[in-house]
Amino acid sequence: MITLETPLENIRGIGPRFLARLDDFGISNVRDLLWHFPFRYEDFSEISKIVDLGVGQQATVQGVIEDIKVRKTWKRHMFIIEATIADETGSVKAIWFNQRFLLAILKKGKLVSLAGKVIQTKEGGIALSHPTYEFINKHIIEQEQMTKHTGRLVPIYPETRGLTSKALRYLIKPILDNLQKLPETLPGEIIKKYKILELNDALRGIHFPEKIDDAREAKERFAFEDLFYLQLINLQERLRLKKQKSHAFNIDLEFVKKLLFEIPFELTNSQKKSLWEIIRDMEKSHPMNRLLQGDVGSGKTIVAVIAAILVARENKQTALMAPTEVLANQHYQTFKKLFSKFDKGAGLITSSGAKFFYGDNLEVGAKKPDAIKKIKFGEIKIIFGTHSLIQKGIEFNNLGLVVIDEQHRFGVRQRAQLISGDYNLAPHFLSMSATPIPRTLSLTVFGDLDVSIIDELPKGRKEIITKIIAPENRDKAYAFIRGQVKKGRQAFVICPRIESAEEENQKDLKLFSDWQKWELKSVKEEYEKLSKRIFPDLKVNMLHGKMPAKGGSASGGKATKESIMRDFAEGKIDILISTSVIEVGVDVPNATIMMIESAERFGLAQLYQFRGRVGRGEYQSFCFLFTEFKSQNIFKRLRSLIDAKSGFELAEKDLEIRGPGEFLGKSQTGIPDLAMKALQNPNLGKTAREAAVEIINKDPELKNYPQLKLKLDNFQKQVHLE
Ligand code: ADP
Ligand code: MG
């Protein structure tokens, strides 16, 4: 009997290669596999006669393979496999790109069921484009259909390299048929009250629905389940927080005024208001749990840093954590510049080393163990680092404030992790994000988090001129960039990957059916092209995540992320080609051009972040979105980056176009995709919350719900590990 715990290698018929691929996606046992849900279904339940096929239709046909051959396209060096299928009413072509192995499988004379979209061919005929196939027997055609891939509602799984929907269906169907009945995880009273589909039915319904309503109900169940867990965690955490004590700071407003006076610019009104809200929170004896939201460049860091200085004045420490070392370093440098007189110790800890200073611009070239000791003894009050600062076990003396920069995964869960040390007094907690999250969403996802919003940019910022560049205008864009650089400006070029597609995928070209990915620009290719052919006279360099963070033996004297970023900031590089490592926070006021290759590959929120890298200085800035595609959908999506007046407006649009899952990104929140999608339906979120409150009020520790408690622990682990 198969159980959820059964490892996939114990299941017959899965080869080692496929196991490895599944493993890459974290799928190693039956549970992982069954919880890998389809994201849509294609309706191939009607079997069409070939004579009836019409362009644009999703259709299943069944017939004999009369002919199959391969031809090569002259333009893209691709192989096209072309088969002719015939039933008693006529014949139709079926075409596949780059799947030469099909020649060995789809042999002449075999009986197949094919499901796919009917397209118009160049020659004026029709064809099935990239259809799914399965072999059938004569008598099956005549009798009941027992198909997995065709002739029914067919599940489509998130397309990932080497893990096709077809293979997944092939694997999942027999497992579902032989699975032991699973115990229900949701409380019986909740199932009954909210009319929720039972677990076993839901699993079957989500993978192989009879009709589309089955799939909908099943999805709703799983989404409800996740939202329900999320709410339970939020509520439990809130109860815990309420019991916690925190240091109630005694903040001297005269000192704050003096401090603000020392900064070379005046805070905007929203910065002041946010700072005020933070101060008020830190004066209370239970921990602050606040999110500071504001557009890229709106000046969140300075607000957090002022809070840190106030905390230091009370002899407590602050940990300021950025998502990358480049950024942590920049925060540290900015701090040193703005508050060179700060004499209570401010330091930077990265994977490769440490620095700190005490006023008078005196920087101590520290050894890391030294700095760690000083932090432990409380001799450094403000510590900059990456998100690992806390997880990696740096010991603090008396942490009063924790600040997390540019991360969506703020909120209660993260916080729980941070303060689980044995502090008598829990630190106050501030997270900062440039991704505006509509209120409805943040309430469901992050629970009762207090939010401060910076909704204005510092004075004098100019709007960034944003343009979508079609391939034929590429040269013009290059000419324009050259002109800007000649005037002394600098440019970023962002590419979606480091190596060229060929290099990365040499091994699996055969499995690589998604030919579009070949068009992706890579940092290295782009570097070769721009430095040698397009801008040989300019200083071009590159930056990517695989480079060592900074100097020392690891770099062997080669360029490091830090050295490149420093050179760019100092104007020694004109054009910097990079992966998304510069996505967040990096500040170079002289950079006025942001050029994004394969812009369609990035989410709007991400593009928005990229664009925020420019427009920080006095000069007019530009953002060029390059795309090779002429798709209305892509244009529409990219255009919203041009049309949106603010980050919040963009967020609403992004949410509307892509849904909450894509918008927030699973990796950012740790929230399962399905629950994310479900958030679009505010009712489901509300119901889940209601149900969670009901259970927690009755039984805060879940003593009477062992199944639920177990599931919740797993869920929590999963969310943390993301
Ligand atoms: P973000 O909100 O994206 O983190 P930063 O905190 O990096 O923004 O601020 C962007 C730049 O604007 C920094 O160089 C910062 O010193 C500067 N800045 C912050 N607040 C103001 C202000 N009120 N007036 C002028 N410049 C400011
Ligand atoms: Mg920032």
Tell me the distance between the termini: 31 Å
Mean pLDDT: 82
How helix-rich are the residues, as a percent range? 25-40%
Which hetero ligands occur in this complex?
adenosine-5'-diphosphate, magnesium ion
Give the C-level CATH assignment of the largest domain.
Answer: Alpha Beta
Estimate what percentage of residues fall within beta strands.
15-25%
What structural class do the secondary elements suggest? Answer: alpha/beta
CATH superfamily of the largest domain: P-loop containing nucleotide triphosphate hydrolases
Q: What number of domains?
A: 4
Folded structure, characterized:
The protein has 4 domains: 1-44 and 158-180, DNA polymerase, domain 1 (Orthogonal Bundle); 46-151, OB fold (Dihydrolipoamide Acetyltransferase, E2P), CATH 2.40.50; 253-283 and 299-433, 3-Layer(aba) Sandwich (Rossmann fold); 465-645, Rossmann fold (3-Layer(aba) Sandwich), CATH 3.40.50.300. Helix 22 crosses helix 23 (647-664). It is built from 27 helices and 22 strands. A hairpin with a 6-residue loop joins strand 2 (58-72) and strand 3. Helices cover 39% and strands 18% of the residues. The radius of gyration is 29 Å and the shape is globular. It is α/β, with parallel strands linked by helices. The strands form 4 sheets. Strands 12-11-10-13-9-14-15-8-16 form a 9-stranded mixed sheet, sandwiched between helices. It has a 6-stranded parallel sheet with strand order 17-22-21-18-20-19, sandwiched between helices. A 5-stranded mixed β-barrel has the order 2-3-4-6-5. The longest helix is centred in the N-terminal third of the chain and has 32 residues, at 212-243. Adenosine-5'-diphosphate binds at residues 265-268, 271, 294, 296-302, 434, 458, 585, 587, 616.
